[in-house]
Amino acid sequence: MKLKTKYGTIEATIEPNTKAVMVSVSGGMDSATLLYMLCKQIRDNKLGIPVYTGTVSYNYDRAAHYNASLVVKHMQREFPDITIHAKFWAGEDFVGKVKTPLVETMYSDIRLKNGWTQQEFKLWWGLTANPQGDSFKFVDPDGSYVTPRDADHSNEKTLYGKGFCNPFALIDKRVIVAAQLEYGLFECFRTITNSCTSIKEYECQQCWWCQERRWAIEQVVPEELKVPDDSQPLPYFQERGVKPEWRAGVRWNEQAYQERLSMTAKHPLEEDTIEWAKRYIEGQYDDVGVNRFKLGKGNISFDTATRLFTANPEGAEQVVCKEMHQCLALFSDVDIIDCARKLRLLHETYHEK
Amino acid sequence: MEINTKFGILEATIPEGQKGVGIAISGGMDSATLFYMICKQIRDRKLNIPVYCYVVAYDYDRGSLYNGGLVIKHMRKEFPDIKIHAQMFVTTEAIGHIKASFAGAMYHDTLRKNKWTGTEFRLWYGLTSNPQDDSFQFQEPKEWYVTPDSARTPGKIDLRAKPRYGIGACHPFVLVDKRVIVAAVHELDLWYCFDTITNSCTNIKQYDCGECWWCQERSWATKCAVPKEDWPREGVQKLIHYGSQKDIDKLWRDGVVWTKEGYLARQELLKKLGNTVTNNT
Question: Which of the listed ranges A195-199, A324-328, B249-253 does the model predict with the highest average pLDDT?
Fold first, then answer.
């Protein structure tokens, strides 16, 4: 799979006879883009192979777990037709230097358990080159910071090796960002990924990695998609028309949403239906304008003034609950999954109107 | 199970007839302590029931997956004889005010799938009361902070909303403050581990600000309930500090009791369990 951008060509191609792929997902933009490109090929080329992700989180990189989980979750929803297994490792130790071997250990474990060769199953890394050209001007931050990658790692980072691949090793982050725009991923990845390597803050905006990300976005992204410093990405994009229901997958637009709906109907994810119940609990009943719905042979209604739920289960007394989940426990004739499906129908009907 | 401390009794007892136990894990010390007490009873009373952990992470609480993950990992190694399931929910949305509902939704899902009732399987929260005397003097931080929960104010706790042992939900610590937790943790030899792997900070920008209400509450409880020689050292990473000051061997750090005795007991247990270890570590 190849894409030409103004800043270079991004390419990541799954070789024939591949049994499965594994991506080292750091929670950053590069590995998220790689994961998307691999999943897209698996679907488009009908490869029918599973995907594994590996993430390492440690004392100096505590948010990796959070951002990588978001990447995996959104990717699972974008590709309900692909089995994506996620592996996480967390340690309180200072494992920054041995992070790579830890992911490789997860990879080897999966490979040996499945009896795959290193040709049939490879570990993919989203590693990119440092900024190319002189447009990147690094401003030394106060205090210590995690230094950039080796300036020339092209010799040791083989693009397609035995057991591993580094397909982005020769391109810089601008190409990654340009590809995200082209694939319709930018709004999502700008929101759910993080590059910061500060050991104290989640997003310091000063470390080398924050500056590299900012530089790439500044260079590549049109003005209307640049999130101002004093704004959060999620509300910013929402104000610019990204609807909450579009945000399930990684492409946050109407067309992708419609495609996912039909794909999810063919490949229902259990979590997906639960998600709708959760969204209801989350408070979206205000948005959808639904305050009463059927549940089994009874119903639940929500009073927007008192913010209380009233459960009317069949054959039992009416009960007022503060929390949605307390109500659900009273309905012995339904399963939460059924409830979620009904909520989903209500939600979609509302939007059709 | 009861632990007597200088500041009160910490009590959490699994009722009879439980099919499993659900715990909301926040990555903090309170839920980690509850988790330990539950597992200890399952083993000691030979209850042979599984534990289900639920972790919720969102944009303003990004660290809970990391700290919650560490708590679950270490507890699995401490209790290889108990089946510990973990379920995590992660979102970019601002769901702080309804976080409990998400843990509740995951709990409910487990309940339904197993066809259990709310009396056979309950969701346990490590929620404590706010500090119960005036020894806690809160210093207003410079920046915005997450305010304490007024529903946790001593004397004003609504036990109907947060029952100690209710149908579907238990809040066994709701009438004790954090000093009791910290004192019990120290008493149970869990201090070095829990002080290292858990976090109380609610700052939305930093990992461990040391200034928010929750960081101050933890610091106050530590100073009240832990002997001075076991306090963390400002500016030094806890793992490094405890490791060097207390000669904690790396090997001892697999479970939650970071002592030689704890390590040897775990090794002995693993030998006994042989190939029947429940948690594949």
Answer: B249-253
- What topology is assigned to B17-274 in CATH? Rossmann fold (3.40.50)
Q: How far is CA A346 from CA A268, A301, B38, in A?
A: 18, 13, 41
> For residue A320, which phi and psi values (nearest 5 degrees)?
-95, 130
Per the CB < 8 Å rule, is B89 touching A329?
A: no
> Which residue type, as a one-letter code, is found at position A90?
A
- B16 contact partners, CB below 8 Å, separation of at least 6: none
Q: Do A325 and B105 touch (CB under 8 A)?
A: yes
Q: How far off is chain B from A59, nearest CA to CA, in Å?
A: 9
Helices of type H across chain A: 29-44, 64-78, 99-114, 173-183, 186-192, 208-220, 233-239, 254-266, 270-279, 285-288, 324-328, 336-352
Q: Provide the phi-psi class of A267: left if phi over 0, else alpha when psi is between -120 and 50, else beta.
A: beta
User: If DSSP codes are grouped into helix, strand and coil, which group holds residue A90?
Assistant: strand
Give the model confidence (pLDDT) of A314-323 as tens digits: 778 888 887 6
Structure confidence by residue, pLDDT tens digits, A216-264: 999 999 999 999 988 999 999 999 999 988 998 999 999 999 999 888 7
Q: How far apart are CA B25 and CA B55, in angstroms?
A: 5
Q: What is the ipTM of this complex?
A: 0.89
Per-residue CA distances from A214 to A174, A226, A297, A300, B60 (Å): 10, 10, 54, 47, 22
Q: Within an 8 Å CB–CB cutoff, is residue B92 touching chain A?
A: yes
Give B 71-90 residues with CB within 8 A of chain A: 73, 88-90
Taking the CA of residue A80 and the nearest CA in chain B, the distance in Å comes to 18
Contacts of A66 in chain B (CB under 8 A): 57, 62-63, 65-66, 90
Cβ atoms of residues B70 and B78 within 8 Å: no
Rounded Cα–Cα distance for residues A304 and A281 (Å)? 13
For the segment A90-95, the average pLDDT, to the nearest whole number, is: 85
Full-model pTM: 0.84
How far apart, in whole angstroms, are the C-alpha atoms of residue B152 and residue B142? 24
CA-based diameter of chain A, in Å?
Answer: 74
Instruction: Kindly determine whether residue B69 and residue A88, on different chains, have CB atoms separated by under 8 Å.
Output: yes
Q: Which of A69, A322, A329 sits opposite B168 (nearest CB)?
A: A329
Q: Is A133 helix (H, G, I), strand (E, B) or coil?
A: coil
Domains and CATH numbers, chain A: 2-262 (3.40.50), 270-349 (no CATH)
The DSSP line for B171-211 is: -TTTTS-HHHHHHHHHHTT-HHHHHHH------SSBS--S-
Rounded-to-integer distance, Cα B162 and Cα B176, Å: 13
Joined tokens for residue A135: 């447009």
A340 pLDDT band (50/70/90 cuts)? very low
Q: Any idea where the domains of chain B sit in the sequence? A: 17-274
Contact between B88 and A92 using a beta-carbon 8 Å cutoff: no
Interface residue B118 vs chain A (CB under 8 A): yes
Q: With both helix axes pointing from N to C terminus, report the angle between A270-279 and A336-352 in degrees, rounded to the nearest 10.
A: 70
Q: Say if CB B232 and CB B222 are below 8 A apart.
A: yes
